[in-house]
Records
---
Amino acid sequence: MSSLFPALTDGPAADRPALRFGERSLTYGELASAAGAVAGELAGARRVAVWATPALETAVAVTAALAAGVTVVPLNPKSGGKELGHILTDSAPDLVLTAPGEELPAPLGDLPRVDVDPAARGALPDDRERDPEDPALIVYTSGTTGPPKGAVIPRRAIAATLDALADAWRWTGEDVLVHGLPLFHVHGLVLGTLGPLRRGGSVRHLGRFTPEGVTRELSGGATMLFGVPTMYHRLAEALPGEPELVKALAGARLLVSGSAALPVHDHERIAAATGRRVIERYGMTETLMNTAVRADGEARPGTVGVPLPGVELRLVEEDGSPVTSYDGETVGEIQVRGPNLFTEYLNRPDATAAAFTADGWFRTGDMAVRDPDGYVRIVGRKATDLIKSGGYKIGAGEIENALLEHPGVREAAVTGEPDADLGERIVAWVVPADPQSPPGLEELAGHVAGRLAPHKRPRVVHHLDALPRNDMGKIMKRALSRG
């Protein structure tokens, strides 16, 4: 296998920019030396935890461990003590890597600590002979039905996903990526940090996401922006009063949204103001990336594009039989196969076995429809977003998008609740644009019925001050009462 980071082992000139976090930066030569120094501290380690703050030290630590062939367990600095304790017990890291002076919580108190110094110097190990199946990362999934599970991601999956995205997005070493994503998750760490390093390009991390930071970096030579829907919503809100932001977004080569569906009305507001379309992609911790809107394809709002090179994707019925009609209407569960998949859930052979079919397809739990030309549109999670009402299978996502097109709706979520007649009735949870004059049930039901179909209209509406969201901007529907 080739190196995960060819730009570090045999790539561009050593003085080429690699990483920048605020005012602190490293060239490729400096990154190789700093990572080499950290790698020298990892002799004998099998697995290390990384206290994954959005800082230069995190990127150096992960690069060092992967170059040394040591598995990385990224830790969310916002994790509570119980969750952190579970992750440490389950993954049993030998060390924790962190920035100097970082105060670590009690569960990490007994773990040997290595402080990462970006100014240190050492020889970077050559990782070109590593087994592609060796575990690179163990990333813990959010535990909606129990404690988080550790998805073991091999080196092969990282290389396959990043190379497939390079093909889809024409991503090269000339690109400069800007983002403000967390580094304990696949989006910010694998795509947003390892992605540029694999290409020989550079990444500028904002630290804290702000429209001003996006304007500054895109106006200063950055070519790509990665974000989550809440970030793009904030950009859409800021655009009318920020002509420099309009110009910066218009000049970007690629605007990419992920981790949750970007509402169609935010797509349209950004496109109307800038002339540029945000494109979406679809992935999970266990699969890394599955689909993407291609740079040379149609940026169709509400879709996540087509399967990436090397990824097989199918939709299946409830009985497991493949959906045979890709008509843009028939809903099925997404299943995928390919080199992008994780190996297993750590210490959970039962969960691993349950996640795969007998012939190796991974059950994503995501529901979608597929257009005749192959474009995939996610309609929600099987567990929380598939509503069976009046004999119809309805995806919550399309109703949410319809609600967001109503001028009186700022945010919206849709769930189902038991109904004696329909099986389930559609419930809308709405944050009104004007809390003093919220749109009522009759108005919103008519609005949805006129855009979609009468059986997709909400039967109940709840007005909220805000929707519960996690760190990645995803709405936590389990936190919404179902009455």
Note: The two ends are 54 Å apart (CA to CA).
---
Amino acid sequence: MDLSTRVAIVTGSGQGIGREIALTLAEQGASVVISDINAMTANDVASEIGARKGKSIAIAADVTVQDEVTRLVEQTITSFGKIDILVNNAGITRDTLLLRMSDTDWDQVLTTNLKGAFLCTQAVLRHMVKQRWGRIINIASVVGLIGNAGQANYAAAKAGLIGLTKATAREVASRGITANAVAPGFIDTEMTRKLSDNARQEFLRQIPIGNIGSPRDVAYAVSFLASEEAHYITGQVLNVDGGMVMA
């Protein structure tokens, strides 16, 4: 999968799954914009790509603020001349049981995880439509398909993101643009490492493959969907979960 002529924006790529996606796209030859609300971590990832002889810049941006999203896109165009790939990965959690969930907990998660993806997608599509080529890849979650106790806000946001993916795919397919979602399952990240041993074992019992996934597993799926080889795939949700969710 040769991405050497492509320019990608990966939101929330200062750490975790987003970082691994950015590194993998750069390995495939793409010029990658590291976008994160944390300027320090974004710069670190861009420097890491540069040290590996890849092409990358860091642009700090809050995906919930339209002016910052506009600036992100404009700076990408100024630096690389175009945008081919958008990976909407930025997201947060505010976990608690539904009966205890505050309006703030709900609004922050929906705004970051869903509205942020909407704003970024809308901003890049104007450029992709003109060039008649593009890849929109939304990082959803199996939680958006099956729900999870204590994550009503997160599940609702990720389910909404899947709906946004399908609507986008229908709207822009005739312009050579695909839109797909990747739904990770139980992935080894800083967040999941904080779980108790009992909680980790309970998750493992639900995974037929029998082990926790890595951020690299998610990144490889994104890399494929970003490629020319995936040109006939759109409006789909690709579960990267070791068989945890089967429909």
Note: The mean pLDDT is 96.
---
Amino acid sequence: MQQDSFYEICGLIASISMVLGYLPQAIQTIRTRNTEGIALPTFLMMAVGGFCFMLQGLLHKPEIIWSLFITNLVTTTCSCIVFVIKMYNDYFKKKA
């Protein structure tokens, strides 16, 4: 039982750290629309990885790992938004 509590606490700390570490950059990028220093493959792979971790948390047996699912839902959503903004900016830069 003690190991299960440690496992849950580690998962919650990791989840909170990931979101708090990632969210400020995503919010700044979404707010300013400045994607100049962002590598497109990075955000694509982060979205794919986050989606796979979401599935892992959701499909885990015997129970769903909510901390894994919710954390990666947030980071995957932000990664997809930043990816779309980056694609949009790169497309219109080439046109101009």
Note: The mean pLDDT is 88.
---
Amino acid sequence: MKGDRVEIVVDAGDTTRTYEVVASRAGRRVETAVRRGVVEVSEVTRNGSVVRTARFMATRVLALVEQPMPRQDSSERALREDPQS
């Protein structure tokens, strides 16, 4: 969903580099996959079309941090509302 982000920390020889992939619009999500030694992070639309992709060699990836946007359930909102008012 919009606001979801994935941070990728990569070993760049003598230093580290941090990259971010963010679901930039409503209805988009961020998906991660590890295939054949490659870490792939993609921003995907509702119907499954890939908008953009970041690919990294798995041996160079130090950390992959998924940070979902906090969501409110309709049931949570109902518990917070005061039925007396």
Note: The longest strand covers residues 50-57.
